[in-house]
Amino acid sequence: MLNTRKLIMIASLGVSLIAGQAWAEGKPDEVHRLSEDLTPFGAERAGNEEGTIPAWTGGITEPPAGYKVGDHHQNPFPDDKPLFRIDATNYQEYADQLGAGQIAIFERYPETYYMDVYKTRRSASFPERTYEMTIKNGATGKLTNGGEGVADVAEGLPFPFPESAQELMWNHKMKFKGGGARRYNNQVAPTASGKYSVVVLREDLLGLYYQEGLTIADIDNMLIYFYQVVESPARLAGNVLLVHETLDQIAQQRQAWIYNPGQRRVRRAPNVAYDNPGTASDGLRTNDMTDMFNGAMDRYDWTIVGKKEMYVPYNSYGAHAEGVTYDEFVMPGHLNPALMRYELHRMWIVEANLKEGMRHINPKRTFYLDEDSYQILLVDHYDKRGEMWRVSEGHSINYYDVPTFWSTVESHMDLQSGRYVATGLDNMSPVYDFNMKLTPGQFTPSSLRKRGRR
Q1: Residues of 73-98 as b/e, b for ≥16 C-beta within 10 angstroms?
Q2: Which of 51, 20, 19, 55 is nearest to 36 (CA)?
Q3: Cα–Cα distance for residue pair 419/413, rounded to 1 Å
Q4: 90 Cβ partners below 8 Å, 6+ apart?
Q5: Assign residue 306 a region: left if phi > 0, alpha if psi is -120 to 50, beta otherwise?
């Protein structure tokens, strides 16, 4: 059992990306644990000794009374009140349960930033089919191609018994996101003084890996199809990005195309990866920061640092609430902390260090993954001097109509410039539609012009 103040080091679990290294495979002799002391995803079922983290009992198993599909997801814990507040006056008392980036935020914004801490709710849940397939994967799943590919798995998480940092990151990347979905991933990138404009982004996603009955061989290395259409402001409206997200991106690179309505032509976009800037982000977000991390892992050496209890954004229904305006959200330096919720959860800690001879604007990054969902909730991004540069928070909820646990708002704070970019602000837009009937034929380069505004 984890002590609240103690970091459990798991250095022996780190796996280097040395060519020809033998990779761990499935663990058929341990699968029984996924219905005993571990959850179907491999998290500890038991709570902690202090009682501040409860036992896992399945997460949210049904929507709150009165909820209808298509509604903004109402808070299933409306009577919860903050237990205490962490701010600039007391954050050092909680330093053992905070990430280095969180501490840096308190030091950068001592007058305005705080964290209201609530009762821990282990609310993450997923479809029974996902659990069943994850348990099967536990006996068979393995890494391939130096950790850049996955084999002998289907539909569920590939590695419920993670033994390497790459396996943990694959659990995040392959976490169930629904078969076909549409969302408004609206974005703001305020100036240091808080002035902002809104970029309205409509996105369609089709996840082949999650389709019932399909195997890795069936999806032919194609993990996700992705469309992004800019609806406003007028100067950007009609720009369209199409991405074919491959599973093993060393064997086959991510493919991308863009359509510009001014030029009225479709062209290949070869740089939608790694540290190239994200759409309309003012350079505050790289492409591989989407969904906290995505894409190839080949530029870094990856290590499991350990696992510990941390105060992290969780059950952030206040940030998802219908009708919250952009003016209520946006503050200089960071989003409005009054809309956020933090809880104590057990987190995997993964460190990525740039390989010799490789290039990325962040030579070092630290990722914090929720043990119940493998959703990345925090990321620390360091600059070339080894100093903290950016800090990312994934304010997440249980989309209990699916169900899946995923970020509703991502905030990427540049502590050096005093700016940030926030994505996923859908409070004034329709919510995620996880019931879209989409096919691969709708995600072709020839369809881009139809999606763009002329």
Answers
A1: bbbbeeeeeeeeebbbeebeebeebb
A2: 55
A3: 6
A4: none
A5: left
Dist. CA 186–CA 271, nearest whole Å? 22
pLDDT of residue 443: 94
Distance in angstroms (rounded) separating the CA atoms of residues 74 and 41: 26
Residue range 213-226: average pLDDT?
A: 92
- Examine residue 403 and say whether the peptide bond preceding it is cis (omega within 30 degrees of 0): yes
Prediction pTM value: 0.94
DSSP assigned state of 97: G
The class of domain 39-64+71-451 in CATH terms is mainly beta
CA distance 438 to 453: 21
Residue 169 is given by DSSP the state H
* Tokens 């837009």, located at residue: 429
Buried b (16+ CB within 10 A) or exposed e, 414-432: bbeebbbbbbbbbbebebb
Name residue, tokens 């609430």.
Answer: 321
How far is the C-alpha of 370 from the C-alpha of 374, rounded, in Å?
A: 5
Provide the residue ranges of all domains of the chain, joining segments of one domain with +.
39-64+71-451
Q: DSSP secondary-structure letter at 299? A: T
Q: End-to-end CA distance of the chain: give it in Å, rounded.
A: 59
Extract the tokens encoding 75. 């808070």
Q: Where are the alpha helices (DSSP H) in 109-149?
A: 128-140
Q: Is the dihedral of CA 294, 356, 411, 240 positive or negative?
A: negative
pLDDT in tens, 310-360: 999 999 999 999 999 999 999 999 999 999 999 999 999 999 999 999 999
Our CA dihedral for 385, 387, 389, 393, rounded to 10 degrees, sits at 140
Cβ neighbours of residue 34 under 8 Å, at least 6 residues apart?
40, 41, 42, 134, 135, 138, 160
